[in-house]
Amino acid sequence: MKLLVPVKRVIDYNVKPRIKSDGSGVDLANVKMSMNPFDEIAVEEAIRLREKGAATEIVAVSIGPAKAQETLRTALAMGADRAILVETDAEVEPLAVAKILAKIAEEEQPGMVILGKQAIDDDSNQTGQMLAALLGWAQGTFASKVEVDGEQVSVTREVDGGLETVKLKLPAIVTTDLRLNEPRYASLPNIMKAKSKPLAQKSPDDYGVDVAPRLTTTNVREPSKREAGIKVASVDELIDRLKTMGVVG
Ligand code: AMP
């Protein structure tokens, strides 16, 4: 079984985002970029499935600028077999990404597409679900456990108040949650080896997908600063304070 793993190049999760002075978005000039953390978990899960013998080939895909090649090389260094870069400088929204991934899935015929549950830059949590709808495939979102069993995959999902296990008929879409696994670091020899693994270069036009944005960002601003708290000596004082603040009547 072939696995398709979409990986997005996003602002590194350790970086504190700076807002552009005109409020039009996050300033990405000279900012460290990395693979979306949930996508690292997806790559790791794909590798584990191959190690268990449930998968034979892992294809990483990224839609983004030329620099997204670095993200794909990271996936290859972790263990993916080959990569596809769909190059565009446009800001690609989840629907356009899902449409491109659907075309690639039709071409590649994977048994599963394993995506992150959300990209930490747009926090959309949409692409996997849209892709499942476009392909008409089953979906198991927010996976904390994935077990392939013949023509089916069991996905344990993190839902409010507990865990739910669903059985999906393959081919299927799986999106990863934080507790699914701990991604490996790429070793130096594997980073070197990744440089010679195949990386195909495509464009959205090759798939006939219009990536023009459908949303307009009207304003981006920092969360308001938290005001300093106060300490109260007793419950009575707490209630008094809450009353004067108008929180309780
Ligand atoms: P989102 O719906 O934007 O929160 O993204 C969910 C998941 O879709 C990500 O974790 C990636 O696996 C995948 N994805 C989103 N955008 C891209 C992209 N430009 N290239 C590759 N994968 C993407």
UniProtKB/TrEMBL annotation:
Domain of life: Bacteria
Family: Belongs to the ETF beta-subunit/FixA family.
UniProt keyword Electron transport, yes or no: yes
Span of domain Electron transfer flavoprotein alpha/beta-subunit N-terminal: 23-211
Keywords noted in UniProt: Electron transport, Transport
Protein name per its UniProtKB record: Electron transfer flavoprotein subunit beta
Gene3D superfamilies: HUPs
Coiled-coil residue windows: none
